[in-house]
């Protein structure tokens, strides 16, 4: 067998790097997906990142279907969006709204029918709605673990599965899911949330492979902390509302910037996007490359955050 010597390796490495760079340039140069008149469904559009996504996709000319549980807040957003559209160059559309609870998976099929009735098709589904959690596993009711999975995992996958057949029929569409850095690494006192986001990552990775043949891309977007009401709305281990705006959330990224990154991911049909600073990014690599160190760091973090009652 021929041996690859040190001298022979260098051109091989340089050629591989060159091919990789060329591929990345070609991906960037590829024409972006047109969003003018595209039907874009956004869940969790009443606040935070979903609301900011509504603004950027509306401005791009999309026909929006805004989803949430609170009809009045969705209507208020429709009024704000349409009030700002008058006088702009871009042709915009009055958004439609569909109200339903993602945690009530029985109602999701009906909601999907209503969504499809709005414009007869869906071009982009943005699974954004979600809830977070704070708690110690020892003190967390199993019902809380289930409820978070219902909202963050079973609800979005039920909606995706209900809308997918229409995309497959039209041989086009785009599925987007807002996961989290916590879909890639699990940090202490977030068991329900991190588990739901890990499940989300796995499901949509499987889906991407399965539906590629129909020309339907799947984008999993994993942000770090964003300045929204996520921690305020989080559920505690006993089922009560956590109700605190955590410093990490308050210091998080501007949701308008994250919404722009979501728009870019849709235009470029990106498969997997991590929107986080250096520390979470290092932590993601550490989890794979040096798990023992990662687990030590997480154990120390758990210890600092909360000492168990029996100590
Ligand atoms: N903020 C952050 O630091 C980060 C957030 N994310 C993710 O971003 C996404 C958006 O969260 P964010 O904007 O931050 O938080 P918000 O709490 O501001 O928004 C959450 C949205 O989800 C909707 N929602 C919650 N529960 C349900 C339900 N059962 N059925 C239908 N809709 C529901 C809410 O609508 P309503 O209550 O009106 O029904 C609301 O519009 C989530 O998936 C979150 O995990 C990811 C990484 C970081
Ligand atoms: C040898 C060098 C070691 C450096 C490694 C440092 C490891 C540091 C750990 C960093 C953990 C980052 C966690 C980030 C979590 C995050 O961004 O979550 C986003 C959310 O979804 C927020 O939701 P939450 O409800 O938790 O506010």
TrEMBL record:
Residues 38-229 form the Ketoreductase domain. Keywords: Membrane, NAD, NADP, Oxidoreductase, Transmembrane, Transmembrane helix. GO terms for molecular function: oxidoreductase activity, acting on the CH-OH group of donors, NAD or NADP as acceptor. This is Dehydrogenase/reductase SDR family member 7B. Belongs to the short-chain dehydrogenases/reductases (SDR) family. The chain crosses the membrane at residues 6-26. Putative oxidoreductase. SMART domains: PKS_KR. One of its GO terms (biological process) is lipid metabolic process. It comes from the Eukaryota. The lineage of its organism: Eukaryota, Metazoa, Chordata, Craniata, Vertebrata. InterPro entries: KR_dom, NAD(P)-bd_dom_sf, Sc_DH/Rdtase_CS, SDR_fam. It holds the Pfam family adh_short. The keyword Disulfide bond does not apply. GO terms for cellular component: cytoplasm; membrane. The gene is dhrs7b.
